[in-house]
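>> received
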Amino acid sequence: MEEKIRDGIAQALLEKFGEGYHIYSESMEQGSEKPCFFILHKSTKIEYRPMKRCIAEYEFEVRMIIGNSLNSGIYSYAEDIFEALKCIRCGEDRINAVRNEFKIEKGIGKATADYLISGRIVEEECQLMEKLDIREGE
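>> returned
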């Protein structure tokens, strides 16, 4: 699922910013072409619910590097990043971000987005112990 969400984020950024921005799925700032985005999966939390249900929370961070100088207009891109991340395609479906945050650290814009997906837990069939036939008095 993480890969589908990452692909959805990449597609949303591509649609919003165009092909002039390089999109990477790992943090490897050296040797990257600017301007660019790095899409990082930060964590997955699963909360189990009654009736074989669960809610999975996927936290992603998108790092944006515009140019060689620090803070070179990054804040002007924050609204566009939020717009791109708020609703993404995940396979055939769309999912909404439930939490967004933007900050700048060491000249790199960092936007975080959390996506919640509810699901049903499917149990695999397993072979139970054989049935014992107990007869009293024999």
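>> The longest helix spans residues 2-17.
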